[in-house]
Structures are given as structure tokens and as C-alpha cells.
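A quick aside before the break. I want you to see a complete sequence-to-structure record at least once, exactly as it would be stored in a machine-readable document. Don't worry about memorizing anything.
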Amino acid sequence: MPLERFAAAWREQYVSSTIATDHAVEGSSCVFCTLASDEVSESTGVLWRNETTFVTLNAYPYGSGHLLVLPRRHVAGLGDLSDEEYEQFFLALRRVVIALEAAYGADGMNIGMNLGLAGGAGIPKHLHGHVLPRWNGDTNFMTSIAETRVLPESLASTWQKVHAEL
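That is the input. The structure line, written in C-alpha cells, reads:
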């Protein structure tokens, strides 16, 4: 069976934007660091946090329920985390998976991290993990052909569903 390839050209606009470039260099402001100190609220998109870790909505979701898990401290890689931060990061990741399962009843889950600019991270200087509920047949021609994501719910709706489970 030949390998089929689909392009995600819609992502190029963000990755090559000044937003991504600004966050790829030292000394620039970090949107994640701002969120790390924001209150848990629908208006900030922050869903949950503890002393070392927080969870927020993805402002550019691949699908409904797409969340980010982040250390509160500005670090780029897993090796930069203290043992406590590492443990809390992965406990939060597990907590998010359980909350998304309860909120969405998805058929599966994607969990991933793009480490560094070469690894595809849009904001490579602040480590973050993606958690995304998936359903059988949830992909369609709009993403592949029209370079458009169709999301059946607002970010506010996502926040309300998941915050209740966290």
C-alpha cells in the first residue's frame, strides 16, 4: 500500500508569522508566561493550575477540546524541569486526559509535544504538551482540501465543559 501524504499548509501561516518568530528568540515576551500568572477563568482561557503547572485552551485548536499543559516556569525542554515540575507536568497531563474523556466521551486521544523550533514548536522557548480528543471519522475534506478547520464549538464552550471536569 503506498504512503499517502496530506499537507497541513494552513499551519504555515502561523509557524512563519511574527508571533511564532517572536517567541522563538530569547528576550521576547512569552504568551505562556503571561497565562501562567493569569487567573483561572473563561476570559483568560486558563482552566486549572497548581504551583508548578497549568492547563489552558489552545487558541488555535486542531479540534474540539484541544488543550495545552504547561510548566509555569519558562523552560524549553523536559530536561530543564526540576523533578517536582516533571512529576507535576505529567500528573497534570493525566488529569487533562481524564477530564477530556469525561467531558467529551471521545473514541481516542492524541497527546504530543513539539520540542524546539526544528521539532515544530510554534512557541519553542516554553515547553507545552498538547492533548486532543479524537473521534472515529473526525477528519474531513475541509482540512485537507480547503485548509480550514471546522470546529463545532466555541472556546468558551470548551472551557465550560472541561473546567467542570478538572
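Two observations worth writing down. The longest strand covers residues 129-134. The chain is about 35% helix and 15% strand. We'll return to this after the break.
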